[in-house]
Amino acid sequence: MKATGLIVEYNPFHNGHLYHLKQSLKQSQGDVLIVVMSGHFTQRGEPAVINKWERTKMALANGADLVIELPYVFSCQHADLFAKGAVSILTQIHANDLIFGSESGKIDDLKRLESISKSENFQKELQNFIKLGDSVPLAHQKALTSLNLDTTLGTLPNNTLGVYYIRAVNDLKSNLSVKTIKRLHSDYHDVLPTHHELSSATSIRHLRETGQPYENYVPKIVHQLLEQNYELTKTYHTWESYFPFLKQKILTLTPRSLKMIHDVEEGIEHRLYAAMMDSTDFEDFMKKVKTKRYTRTRLQRICANILTHTTKELVQELDKGAPYIRILGASSKGRQYLKLHKKQINVPIYSKFDSKGHPFLLHEQAVTAAYSCILPEPHCTTLIQAEFKNFPIFLKS
Questions:
Q1: How far apart, in whole angstroms, are the C-alpha atoms of residue 85 and residue 200?
Q2: 16, 18, 19, 17: which is closest to 198 by C-alpha?
Q3: If 315 and its partner were Cys, which of 6, 262, 281, 360 is the partner (CB 3.0–4.6 Å)?
Q4: 35 has a pLDDT exceeding 60
Q5: In whole angstroms, what is the distance from residue 177 CA to residue 364 CA?
Q6: Does residue 93 share a domain with residue 179?
Q7: Domain extent at residue 192
Q8: CATH code of the domain in which 169 resides
Q9: Binding-site sequence positions for ATP
Q10: For 119-166, what is each residue's pLDDT tens digit?
Q11: Could you tell me which of 186, 216, 181 has the C-alpha nearest to residue 199?
C-alpha cells in the first residue's frame, strides 16, 4: 500500500484542507492517507479551536485513513522542530510521500531556497541581524534582502514551513518524496474571507467567535461538530478565555521558576512577571511583553509552555525526532496499513495512553489538563479522563 503523508493542524478543518487532501492523493496516487496532526495547542502557540478527538473525527470523515498525534513538545515549537517532529513520524511509519500546501506551489524553488538558507553567507547575515535584536523571522527576511534574493518566496508562512519540511527530510535522511500543492485564495493570516467557499482557518475562527456564519467554508460534518461542541460547552478556546489561568500561573511562580520553562530566555521571565502584575486581559499582556526580538507567536508559545508547565528539562534531544507514534484515529484502510507495517516500525506505537510511556507521552496529560481548564463541568473532567481512557476513533467503512 502506497502511503501519502500530510502534516496538519485542522484548526478547524475547512474546504481548503479538503482540496489539499484530495489533490495530495491524486498527485501521489496513494492508497492510504496518513495525517500527523497537532494535539491541543498549535505551532503558533494557540489553543486549538476544538479538542483533538473532535478534530480527528473531522479528518477521518473527510478522507484521512490514519491520524497520528504530533506530541506537544513538537507541535508548539518554532518551524524547525515542528517540521522535524512531524517528518520523523511520517518516516517511521514508512509513508512514501509528504505533500504540503504552499503559496509558491513550486517544489524546485522551495528546495533551492532551503539550500540557500543553509549557506555560509546566508547564515552569517542571519546571525548579524539577530545580534542586532531582530526576531528570527525578521532577520530571515533581512538576510534574504541583503543577498538580493526573493523575499516574497522566503517570507510567506507556508513557503517557510515547506522549506523546513524539506530540511527535516534531508537532516533525518528520510526516504520521503517531498511535493507541494499551491494554496488557493486565502492567506493564512486573513481575518476575513476572500472567496465564497474558501477561507483561512484564522478567518473561520474569527467568524465563529463573533457569531457570524461560516458554514460555506467548512464541510457539513465539521460545522455540525463545531456547533454541537459549543452547544455543550458554551466555550471558545481563545487566549482571552485562558488569561485568568495564565495570570494565576505566572504570578504564583517566581521569575526564577519561570526561567525553568522551555523557551523562557534572556531575562524575559522578569518582563513576563512585571507585565502580568497590571495586565487586565491577554491583549493587554501581549502589548506589554512584545518586543522587537520576541514576536507574538513566540510569546504565545511561551505562554502555552507556562500553562502546560513544559520545562527545559523535559524538552531535550528533540533533534532526533519523535520517539513514539500515538494513533488518534483510523479507517479500515488505515488499520490494514498498520497491520502490514507494524513489524517494520522501530518506535513504540500507542493506541492508548500508557503511564509507563515516554516522558513526552506522559506530558500530554498536563497539556490536556491545561487545555480543559476553561471548560465547565462535567466537560472539563470528561476531556481530562479521555486522555487516559480513549482508544483511537475507528471509522467503519
A1: 24
A2: 16
A3: 262
A4: yes
A5: 30
A6: yes
A7: 3-103+158-237+318-395
A8: 3.40.50.620
A9: 7-20, 101, 158, 183
A10: 888 888 888 888 887 877 788 888 888 877 766 777 788 998 999 999
A11: 186
In the listed set 250, 281, 315, which residue is the last one of a domain according to the structure? Answer: 315
Looking at the structure, tell me whether residues 183 and 249 fall in a common domain. Answer: no
Mean pLDDT score of the chain, rounded to an integer?
A: 92
Structural domains counted in the chain: 3
Q: Same structural domain for residues 89 and 181?
A: yes
Q: Is the pLDDT of residue 34 over 60?
A: yes
Domain boundary among 289, 315, 341: 315
Q: Which residue has the cell 520521503?
A: 176
Please report where in the chains the cell 502534516 appears, as a residue.
Answer: 7
DSSP letter for each residue of 165-221:
HHHHHHHTT--PEEEEEEPPS--TT-SS-SSSS---HHHHHHHHHTT---GGGS-HH
**Would you list which residues are annotated within the binding site?**
7-20, 101, 158, 183
Domain co-membership, 184 together with 217: yes
Judged against a pLDDT cut of 80, whether residue 69 lies above it is answered with yes
Whose cell is 485568568? That residue is 244
Name every residue whose Cβ is closer than 8 Å to that of residue 80 and which is 6 or more positions away in sequence.
164, 167, 168
| Range in 110-114, 118-122, 247-251 with the lowest mean pLDDT | 118-122
